[in-house]
Amino acid sequence: MSETPSVPPAATPLTRAVLEIDAFAATMGWDLPARLFALVDTAELVRNEPSLASRLGLDADAPSGLTPIEQEELPAGKQLDEFLATIAWPDAVAGCALVVERQMLPPSAEAQLPEGLSEAKLAAWVAEHPEREEVRMTVAVLRSGARETALRLRSKDTANEVLTGPDLVPALAEALSATFA
Fold first, then answer.
1. Is residue 36 part of a domain?
2. 3-state secondary structure string, 106-155?
3. How many CB atoms lie within 10 A of CB 50?
4. Largest interatomic CA distance in the chain
């Protein structure tokens, strides 16, 4: 993936990578399965894997930072947490990112939440709720512990409406961090 012009130049390399992945996912539309990316140091990639770097459009003059490399499709039918528990990254991978779509409710809807629902019934209840919002989350972590997230609401599907921050989806960031343990 090449650098996206809409990504702010002053952002950290991790923030740039998250926004680049978010912009890439946005070109594909909505209602897609989860996507997993390895994050590698761009300079090391150019130096150690020149043929791969060339296929990605990178050369010796490539800007420093992180290059996202999409991994194989996630296995169908497997729970995301179970799948993440099976991942072990090689040392050359500096971090990883995951793009997932979910439905969420505003905090005001929590009081309406029926108790004792199974996971499937809860998902159905949320899907029918009039205040539900579809969201695409791009969550990234580095081996160092750094985190970043980009959230894109389907109702505000433009690059300038993407929210970013390190702690927007802490449970998913923890699960991704565990892939480096």
1. yes
2. CHHHHHHCCCCCCHHHHHHHHHHCCCCEEEEEEEEEECCCCEEEEEEEHH
3. 13
4. 57
| Total of domains in the chain | 1
CA–CA distances in Å: residue 27 to residues 85, 88, 160, 181: 29, 29, 15, 33
Look at residues 119, 122, 22, 128 and name the one whose alpha carbon lies nearest to residue 79: 119
Q: Is the pTM of this model over 0.70?
A: yes
Range of the domain at 55: 13-101+137-149+167-180
Closest CA to 138 of 107, 106, 102: 102
Instruction: Flag whether 54 is in a domain.
Output: yes
- Report phi then psi at 95, rounded to 5: -170, -175
Reduced to 3 states, what is the DSSP secondary structure of residue 5?
coil
Sign of the alpha-carbon dihedral angle for 66, 143, 171, 179: positive
Answer yes or no: are the C-beta atoms of 65 and 18 closer than 8 Å.
no
pLDDT tens figures, 98-137: 999 998 887 777 778 888 888 778 778 878 888 888 999 9
